[in-house]
Amino acid sequence: MLPGSILNKKTRLVWIALLALSPLAYVAGSSLTFKYDPNLQVGFTIDRQSTIEAARRFAASRGIDVTGWEPLCRVSATNDLLFYYRLDKGRESQIARSLAPEVVVSVRLRSPDNLESLEVELGHDGRLLGYTRNFARQREFGAIAEPAARQIALENLKSRLSQLLPQEGVPSNVDLKLEERAETGAVNRKYVWEWPLSTIPELTVKSELSFRGNVLTSDTVKANIDDAFARSNLNTKSNLKTVFSIAYGLLIALVIIFGIYRFVQRVKQKEISYSRFTMVTVVFATTMLLYFLPTDEAFYNFAGQQDFQGPRTFILVFIYISITVTYAVMGVFMGLAYGSGEGDIRESYPGKLTSLDALVTGRIFSQNVCRAILIGCAIGGWMLLVGNMTLLPWQGKPGYGEDLQWFTFIQWFGHLTWMSTMMTAGLDVITVTIIGLLITLPFLHRRFSSRRVIITMAGICAWLACTGPGYLNFRPWTALLLTAAVRAFFFLFAFLYFDLIAAIVCLAAPTTFSVILQMLAQPSHGIRESGYISLTITSVSLLIAFIFAFKGRVYREDEVRPLYAKLLADRISMQAEVSAAREAQKRLMPESLPNIPNFSIAACCHPAHEVGGDFYDVFKLEEDKLGILIAEGGGKGLGSALSIAFAKGYLMPKILGDSQSDNSPTEVIRGLQDRLTTMLDEDAGVGFAYVVIDDGTLRYARVGTHPVIMVSNEKSPGQLSFPEEREIKFKSGRRAEADISVIEGSYQLGKGDSVAMLTDGIVKYLKSDKTNPDAELSKLLINAGRNDSASLQEELDKSVKELSKRARKRAMDDDLTVVIVKLNNDGD
Fold it and tell me: How far apart are alpha carbons 605 and 586 in whole angstroms?
């Protein structure tokens, strides 16, 4: 479904056209892939089975009985050689490539007793390149004289080279250099011959033939490119890549730290889905295991260690457990990151996880899931095309282009070749989604309010996440930054305009499609057949998605979201109400205090994290006559705040009306209390005070234990006193069984005296600091210095701000409300 913001007819037609034309984008992107992708052009004529058979035939030709030996396969790629051979430096370069190509398929055959192994190296076309035999140290060998060993090495070198390069012939001046060392039970000799490739001095090609005792143990060819030449001509080094690698590491550290922090917070709020946490952990760990365990990569090197004679089963179990535990720990971090970010995404981007919820809860054939998959695939086609187009300025130039992806090759020569398409894309998608989206977006939302800034910063983080996994390698590395930027743009675009599944599929589709093309392009029957299996599975899946995108059921978010998300939705709704109440509370406060020559006035209401409901207002009744209304919300949140809003609406017309301005504070509060008897519970904790200061006389009336009114006498600094009070009871006119209790008080003020009105938060926090309001307010009045409102307000703000910091550290959260009125001395 298209988002509401783009549902106008003209724009919708554009969207439909882009989605409908996405197959053409795949075709255009594929043409560029066929032209430049080295994986597609490598041309494997062998697969796992034929490679193992070729290795066994070679062993038989050397008289080595490998019956019952365990076969292991591995593919290695040298990208420096790939780019060097593309320079096309003449005939000698072609000779070097035939001796040491950029892609080597190795087969290691290990004996059942683990005392011997044979490694055979083949080219992508099955041509023999070299071999190595490994023996356990306890194996005894016969002796052979050095001239005889040299002659055997020379004959093998000539025989091998004549087979590989029949048109060149065997050089007459083959001078083998000897490296010799003695070991227990045998003498090890290695003969090295450097090929005389005079036209390409930057490339060193050496044949190495080794003996252990009287047995020729290896015959291999190695090629090395001069480092200086590689840096200047093959773009092997990049300072920019180093900088981005460091930045990527810092991003991962941020994700881990913030993810743990948010996960703990979500657990405390009971807003975490442990089933989702477990699901992501298992999916990531399983994906990693399925990527490597069906291959021989984890065991290949161990199979060549013949000196370790422990039980084979124990070793295999140990390797399996080690790999599983490693990936499980990585999966826990990924699950933790997902669990901590999922709730924040639901909160900030409602509806973006609905299709994912439908998928997880088994509604695979819902319209939510199927449409998201189709939209993601369609956007992925444009990502493939635009990504390939960004690389065109460098494609085809010497020393530039895409690297060979060895991690794809190891899948092709594993046990489940057809799964390589899903595994390759899976690791990339999980990493980018969690690092570049699920953690970074919530983190940014907590630090920035501008949506434009948030999206820009999220784009940078997603861009950085797309450069990190290393699934796309290109020389120069600057070009990769452009490709990563394209991927990050389409990824965020799919998420912001559609949903998370669309973004995930959009990221996975180009990689999956490219790997399928690479497999189909190989001459090897086995690899191509696996490609057809992957293509069939993908095509059938898309066909089913297309059918149910129209015939499936549409699920609402509340039908598929997990249970914890219901609690999250309730909290978000409550927070919205609280935010509205806090805004209303702020608007009830006066914008400015009255300016009366005979008074210095300061007031402050520092709001709690939640709505406490405190309120004050200061107003001029007549010349030199001041009225103060102050309320204590009791920390009861929304209900108290609404009651106080009602109180102000009731009182202010009575107080400021022409006919009511002479009403006594007691009568005003009594009328208010009578009105509120039907609105408040007995334990609501709400209190009100109405104070009038006129011609040096303080009169007030209040209900509740707070606010309290205290007086500071200028003649006794440091001591605050309470005015004399008396309680008056009235019968309620609205509830016959209820009594109304009003406390009234009065005090005769002198010049320089101050009146302080405090709510419960101030008193409570000062007591928790093992001090008292007398000392704190006296210090505040002394620090205020001059008899002016600005000085008094500055000191009050400073004192309350410091008190608020201390209160939050102790998790004591209530409104802090103070109003201070000082009678100025004559002449001030």
Answer: 9
